[in-house]
Amino acid sequence: MLATVTDTQGIIAIAAGAVAIAALLGCVVLSVRVRRLRAAQRLVLGSGDAQDLVGHAAAMQQAFETLKEDVEQTAVRLDGRLAAAEGALRGAISHRALVRYDAYNELSGHQSMSIALLDDERSGIVLSCIHHRDQARVYGKQVRGGQGELELSPEEADAVRRALGGDSEQDERPV
Predict the structure, then answer these.
(1) What is the model's pLDDT at position 47?
(2) Which residue of 11, 39, 53, 142 is 20 to 30 Å from 63, comparing CA positions?
């Protein structure tokens, strides 16, 4: 006996066919979504990797930890180099001042001068050049901690004071 569309077997067959078509459409929709997801993963993971997103995240975490260690080691090395450079710069001339004056009151145009050249520890030298009409003399005195080893002339003391006070501009002063 043949089943017709109107009897129970025909209705069940039509319902089963409709469910099969709905399942087929669902599979097509899911297939499209999986393709889109894989395309998005390829953007993140790159085209050559066969690993999943979790594996990629774990690899990225390991790479970041390695990079962090490298950066920390580099920072330690740079701190050491910076400390060495700062130590070397402490001995460099960082304070200076020039005082010009007329040593013999001859109105010769302030040709005599005293210059202080000091480091950050307030040590260095003071050079004085005393000019006269027929001669010139140069004197040098060592300075430690802002004080001369020998007694400083008023002009030399003024040059040291100006150098340590940050006023390094040339100054002409009458004597």
Answers:
(1) 64
(2) 39
Tokens representing residue 146 in the block? 């802002």
For 1-39, the DSSP string reads: ----TTSHHHHHHHHHHHHHHHHHHHHHHHHHHHHHHHH
Whole-number pLDDT of residue 175 = 39
> Which is nearest to 59 in space by CA: 48, 72, 45, 71?
45
The tally of CA atoms less than 13 A away on the side-chain side of residue 118 is 31
State phi, psi for 126 to the nearest 5 degrees: -125, 125
Mean pLDDT for the stretch of residues 155-171: 77
> 164: which residues sit within 8 A by CB, 6+ positions away?
95, 118, 122, 146
Please provide the DSSP assignment of 64-102 as one string.
HHHHHHHHHHHHHHHHHHHHHHHHHHHTS--EEEEEEE-
* Tally of CB atoms within 10 A around 63: 10
Cα separation of 152 and 133, whole Å? 24
Report d(CA 90, CA 92) in Å as an integer. 6
